[in-house]
Specification:
The structure is a homodimer of 416-residue chains.
Chain A (H helix, E strand, L loop, with lengths): L3 E8 L1 H4 L7 H11 L2 E9 L3 H14 L2 E5 L10 H8 L4 E3 L1 H14 L5 H4 L3 E3 L3 E3 L8 E6 L2 E6 L3 H19 L4 E10 L3 H13 L5 E8 L2 E10 L2 H18 L4 E3 L5 H12 L3 E5 L5 H7 L8 E7 L2 H6 L5 H6 L5 H15 L3 E7 L14 E7 L4 E7 L4 H22 L1
Parallel strand pairs in A: 1-2, 1-3, 3-8, 13-14, 13-15
Antiparallel strand pairs in A: 4-5, 6-7, 7-8, 9-11, 9-12, 10-11, 15-16, 16-17
Helix pairs in contact in A: 2-7, 10-15
């Protein structure tokens, strides 16, 4: 059985110079995967005629579907559209619907419409125009050598809208897709090689149409099974069977039998129990609250956080005794325990999570070097605290601290 | 003059399936750019022999330097190292120093050393080994057809360490780099096409060795000039000259004459003035505090944040009168004004920033639909508030709200 393959081409100097991180490609890959398309090649090129042209040629030889993002903005550094016009042997015409869309947007924004905005309504006459409901640059669908090429703007929410509303449904109509199924489980507290050792005998005997991947991320490791086949029922049955074995083999580290974030998992646990949570954060500076509130509907169980960056806030707002901070230090088991107590009193929630640490690059001392962190989770009756030591840069230390704190909170909720 | 070019090859199914976002490439591009290397091609391929092989072949034809990340982990889905061994006509040998490093790491972690960990010390005998001080997989430096190929682990902090300590200095030694200079300015409140219109006459007359790029991001637009040449002084002089003109042309939207984040800029303004700030956040859920504390040394001016997600916290902790929330709503000018007042009282800082809004997907009403946001900045004497309406998804609404709030805070600090 032949797999339908896709290449993603991202155009723009801003990616190549590293000023922008490419989040589009990951999203597109996920969505294509879900409908049975295997993204086997991703390439980023600058605003350079020959590089774009070659990328199209190579991708056209390699893949059934070529998705192109970027290079369609209203400013002068864009050469993508003239190139597409030439590559697909067209001539430029104004698309009336796209022009109407641009006029409507500028009227809403109350901004004057200028020549370069009008130009965005021009498209090669050899494409099928895909209207952009969220921005001014329309999408363009071309076919050549029995391959599909789609050009979309690089603005993430515009690209996502065009993909979801038009491109994915059209691809499903045009191609006869094989079935691809996934199962993912989440583990915590075990390294990649340790997990590999646990499951090596089972892994060696996996059928050839099923693949295992290790996806480590901030102290968590996801294990993902991917199976492919023509018959959906057979693929799903095979996945259920092997996933069942995998769950048993990894049970000591297993956190969730699905691909879920810790913050979502905690939200679910709290909602199931009708309980609430608050945070008291020093070194994570609001990042734990940010993670918890990134989940839609989190206002049902998350009341708030006291970001007590300065010690005066720990004392005055969270009632950590000055003597404790003076004697034990702001980064200590006693301090995070008082922080739990303090925030529970203020927020009146069922559970609380607290952190205090030194994230670097400055602020370390011989006794408590950069990376020293105390985390705690508790309720009105008791508190559990743990000490960690992270050796990374500030950003990663913050992220790791938040992840371990959320995991401790998860365990505490399960036990209490 | 010939430019030194580089390709980046990223290996791993996890990127192609979209479960991991590629942040390595952006960082590598930035660093290479700084030493005068132009990254003109980035490609991601899966753990598939032919795809990796072809990517090496194509990149080798195209670029002087080929940097490869990923595919070196201890688990069984890795085929990169045997492939490199074959591609560079080597045979696999154990590198004693790498083995010693692995043993030391496992001893520190107090984990048993297993066969697959030992295998990580194996390298092709045709490479120069680059020791990895932060992990178990060593880097490998190959030369073929007068091109340099470097393979590195995909774990970001390991890759960054190897690049900084070894690869970048070696590249500087090996190649005769041209000089590349950049100037970036930050604007707020003006769209990309509006800026383009302001500067089009100047842009049309730019010399051929200088390039302008528009980098829009969350309501801010960065304008970057890049110039290249053999003589550093000439390049810098040219840049100074053109950048001077650009600053004048864009002055009504100009925020900073450099590539800086708003949170860093605010930190600098506060430090210069010896002032402090606190936040009161509802809909951003800690994200503003997270941004402010992502800056090293922010503890000097950022005291903390009250994340008052639940209305009870707004009332009890920030002293927003219940009647105000009842009559005007939690998302109102009156509420954010009281939030400023409340947090200034608690935290005793010079300035405060506050936000309240509806981020979606739920929680909207006819009068106040999803995306409605009130932001405020103030001090003990006065408060300025603004209303916004964002039409995006939850994540983007949160990020935009934070960005506009920080910009309002910046303006308030400048005026007061």
């Amino acid at each position: 059985m032949e797999r339908i393959t896709a290449s993603i081409i991202t155009i723009g100097d801003e990616l190549l110079i590293g000023q922008v991180i490419d989040t589009n490609s990951a999203w597109m890959s996920q969505e294509l995967n879900k409908i049975g398309v295997w993204v086997h090649y991703r390439v980023a090129v600058g605003d350079v005629w020959n590089d774009i042209w070659n990328a199209l040629e190579e991708a056209g030889k390699r893949s059934n579907i070529i998705l192109i993002t970027g290079g369609l903005g209203p400013t002068a550094d864009d050469i993508t559209k003239p190139l597409l016009c030439k590559y697909f042997d067209g001539k430029m015409i104004v698309d009336e619907q796209a022009l109407q869309n641009i006029k409507t947007i500028f009227k809403k924004l109350n901004r004057p419409l200028i020549e370069r905005n009008v130009k965005q309504a021009e498209v090669p006459d050899t494409c099928t125009v895909i209207q952009n409901k969220r921005g001014t640059a329309p999408g363009m669908w071309f076919e050549k050598y029995a391959k599909v090429f789609v050009s979309m703007p690089g603005v993430p929410h515009e690209m996502k809208g065009i993909m979801t509303d038009d491109v994915l449904p059209r691809l499903l109509q045009q191609f006869n897709m094989p079935y691809i199924g996934h199962r993912t489980l989440l583990t915590a507290g075990a390294g990649e090689s340790f997990l590999a050792e646990l499951i090596k005998d089972w892994e060696a005997l996996l059928p050839s149409n099923i693949k295992l991947a290790y996806l480590p991320n901030y102290g968590l490791v996801r294990l993902r099974l991917t199976a492919i086949g023509e018959n959906k029922n057979k693929v799903e049955k095979l996945l259920d069977n092997e996933f069942g074995k995998l769950k048993i083999l990894t049970k000591e580290a297993l956190v969730a039998e699905e691909d879920i974030s810790l913050e979502k998992l905690i939200g679910r646990l709290l909602k199931e129990r009708g309980k609430t949570v608050a945070a008291a954060e020093s070194c994570t500076g609001g990042y734990i609250a940010h993670l918890l509130t990134s989940v839609p509907g989190s206002s049902a169980y998350f009341y708030g956080s006291v970001v007590s960056y300065d010690n005066s806030i720990k004392e005055n707002l969270l009632n950590v005794p000055e003597a404790i901070i003076h004697e034990e230090g702001a980064v200590s088991e006693e301090t995070v325990t008082y922080m739990i107590k303090g925030v529970l009193e203020i927020m009146k929630t069922d559970f609380a999570v607290a952190v205090s640490g030194i994230m670097g690059p400055d602020g370390g001392a011989q006794e408590k070097p950069v990376g020293t962190v105390w985390i705690a989770a508790g309720n009105i009756e008791k508190t559990e605290a743990q000490k960690f030591f992270f050796r990374f840069d500030r950003q990663r230390n913050i992220e790791l601290t938040a992840m371990y704190a959320l995991n401790l909170l998860r365990q505490f909720i399960l036990k209490n």
